[in-house]
């Protein structure tokens, strides 16, 4: 096994035991980047000189007994919405071509303090306003979409071009590409991870979270990310928590909610079969399955778009009027549409969210978590605009990809996407676990228990 193939947990253990040096790991990942990047396009910027310098510093610190923890010396990618001092934050847009961050974002500073080694900034759908990340190819099939908007982060991790990465999630933008590329994606509880220094899409829906190869890795990254920052008005004040999931597969006594509505409507048959098989695996580990009705389903998509569109337009108000030609057409149209939305519609979306949160809180008192597909379909062909379901219904690709992930953003509950297999074309399938606010430890425990019953996942072929 080459160092770039190692999970975060395995690499951290090897570094701590002096079986692997941060320099060896960084060199291996950078060589992998050179190998796969021409085909995949995961990165906007690769900071190779900075990567090697930081790895050498980590090696010296660890040799001197100053080991900072499991992220020390581990190569990471950061979505190009996340500010790093002195490095461009382009948001994959010509609008930001001259922007260079003056200071670290909170999450970048926390990763640096933990000793992580920046490999580069990963591509996003322009300003995170889309579900495909067209600059980037799927790690399993370069002719298919990577998913978005954190497509670069998911592809880099899936291909071994980063040991872990950070993304953002406004309507599924961590979980969508994670599911499409066969990696783990965690959208934490709203406010658990600060967003100061992160370019916003929709401030009441935005989250920052990890993209990793395993659930255990996600817990290690969340340990370093979570915590209050007064510069983010939504940031929660919470005591420190240990998110690394405990070993063991016994889920006796846990109640797993299986949706009767919404999550299995208009879902590809292979996706449904893989997810139901994974849910049965949870039952075999001792969990009890409970049928649940997802509340207010007729309002989910209208509420998601009713919140996101006007908030995004407000954020871009100045540049939309001064340099509209610099935006890609799909994003510019959405931003212009936001200027036509009446204030009453935005207020009704806020009211709907309040009611939806109440209904979800009531549902989550009856079960411990909900298990469902992350997405209704695997990765579509690049350029494909619609999906036709078995009953003849035609749905836009972006609408399909956001449909099952949006409820967690609207309500703010945590959601973890875990790979649960591949379809007959070899494309990954994801299952999401949704929990109560601040229920990340339980989600990670369940996801880790499931992973321990499965063979170790291999990296995507990528070449």
Automatic annotation (TrEMBL):
Residue span(s) of domain Amidase: 25-444
Keywords: Ligase, Transferase
GO function terms (MF aspect): asparaginyl-tRNA synthase (glutamine-hydrolyzing) activity; glutaminyl-tRNA synthase (glutamine-hydrolyzing) activity; transferase activity
Enzyme class, UniProt record, top EC level: ligase
Pfam families (alphabetical): Amidase
Entries under PANTHER family matching the protein: AMIDASE AMID-RELATED (PTHR11895:SF176), TRANSAMIDASE (PTHR11895)
Name of the protein described by the UniProt record: Aspartyl-tRNA(Asn)/glutamyl-tRNA(Gln) amidotransferase subunit A
